[in-house]
Structure formats: structure tokens, C-alpha cells
Amino acid sequence: MRGTVTGLITGLLVGVIIGVFVGMIMYQHLNHETESNVSQPEVQNLEDFNYSQLSYLCRMWPESKTSVDMTMVKRAIEFMNSELVRPGVKVYLINASVFKGCLYKIMIRVVEGNRTLTVDDIYLTADGSVLALNIAELTRVEMERVNVSAGNNPVLGNPEAEIEIITFSDYADPLTADFELNVLPRIFEKYGDHVKYVFRDFPVSNEGSKASLAANCAKVKGKFWEYHNLLIERQSEWVQNTSLLYDYAEELGIDREWFIKCVENETYFEDIRIDSQAGFFAGVSGTPTVYVNGIKVVGVQDYRTLDRIIQRELENSDTFGTLNSK
Q1: Does the pLDDT of residue 31 top 90, yes or no?
Q2: Of 173, 183, 185, 276, whose Cβ has the fewest other Cβ atoms within 10 Å?
Q3: In this structure, are 163 and 310 located in the same domain?
């Protein structure tokens, strides 16, 4: 009987010891796994992962947050610096906020040496398991600058602005109209006196060529931007009937007969040729081609792309201030 009790007690002790040992191993494994998930999140590339689909992450990780867990955010920054960026590049945290209640929207500055490469937003799930960002922005090299000037063209905005946006465009190009109607106003709304804009003629169509001639005729009458805006806003009208170009001039108070002669005689053809030649030398091959302080941006340009470039330019000119919070 005594032997049976002794054996039973010994068995229980051995069981307890084994249980504690196994429990410690499982705890260490689970703890390591949790730390691994926090410090090494799954990376979603925002070039492939559409921004509108960020709500998908909220459905998959519907954890509700009202404040930012800065420890989680800092771990994500550490992970990026150790695993994602190339040597010599450093990621810095600017600010973080709650996005849709389930994500952290983190504004970062990517720096190489003393030069800011980009300022961008990344997204982290509240549990730290998924990091959504534009990988190309972290691995990009410095954009090449081109020596391009405003030429003899009117400037819209503050002539002394730090940011100079120059476009080489065709008035008849729908992408040109889209840029001026949907992107440029947002740039001016955010950056105001820090930006100036110059339109240079680079017509690649007959309709665009005639519109450029008309705009230059309006320029000598001090009505360039008013006429320019009409061409952009009413593009779908006059590209089908270029005689409307004369109606627009008359609408602005320009003598119709004078204007018709000015356009038909191609009075300011040389000005257009100079602009187009400058575009060729700057590497323009299609419209619109946009230059931000000489940095070339081709084709369809969304606001976000230009905003990142402008923020970086202002950062490098010590004018960044509080603009990134707008």
C-alpha cells in the first residue's frame, strides 16, 4: 500500500515537472512567435495594393482603435530600417494617426545622407501584423534633374516661389486638361505662395497647334490665363470646332477681327517653336510632361505623386514647416 502511494506521489511529481517544462517551452514559443509577428509584419506593396482596398485590411483585422500604439509604430519603423531600405538610407517617423479605426496611418521621411528622398504615408494594422507601403519609394534613387526654364511665358502664382512647376503640353490633349482641372488646383490649395506654374507649348496635334497660336495672341492682349483656362475647361467643345477659338477671344473682350488675323497669320509661331524646341532638349516625348524644379514627371500624374515630390523639395529647402500636416 505504502509503495503504491509512494509511486502515485512520484508519478504526480514527475507529471507536474514535465507539465511545467512543456508549459515553459510553449510559452517561450508563443512569446517568440508574437514578438516575431510584431517586429516582422507581412509587407503589402501599395503599388499593387490599391489604396481603396485598405478597407480590406480592416475587415481582416477589425480591431477598433481610438489612439495610436506608439510602441507598435516604432517597431514597424525599426523593421523597415533593418529589413527594407538599402544601406545608407534611413526611415524617420514624422507622425502617426488612427485610420478607419483599425489601421495606423504613419507619415515617414526617407533620408539618404542629408537629403530627403521622399515623404510618404504607410499603413500598419493595429496588431502590427501587416505593413502596407510603397516599396519603390523606399528603394528609389535620386531623380535626375533637367535644366529647364520658363522661357518667355507668363507665370501663375508667386514669381518668387520655391517650387516651379513647368509643363510642356498640347491644349487638345485630354491628359493635359485632367492635370490642370484635377491636380493643379489641389497643389495650389495646399502650397499656395510656395508654388508657381508655367505652361509651355508642345502641340502634337493640329487642333493643339491652333490653340497654342490663339493663346499666344491672347497673351499679347494681357488675357493669357483667362483664355488658357477657357481652352482647358471647354476642351471638348473647341477640339470639334476650332472656330470657337475666336468666340472665346471675343468673350474676353478681344477684337474678333484682329484675333482672327493674329491666329490665321501664325503671328506667334516662333514663340511656339521655341517652346517646343526647349521641350525636345529637355527630353519631352509626350504630353503632358511635368517638371517640378527640373524633376521630370511624364504622363498621367495624380496629386499624390506630385505632392510627394513637392514635399521633398520643400524639405530640402528648409521650407517644409507644417505643410505636411495639411
Answers
A1: no
A2: 185
A3: yes
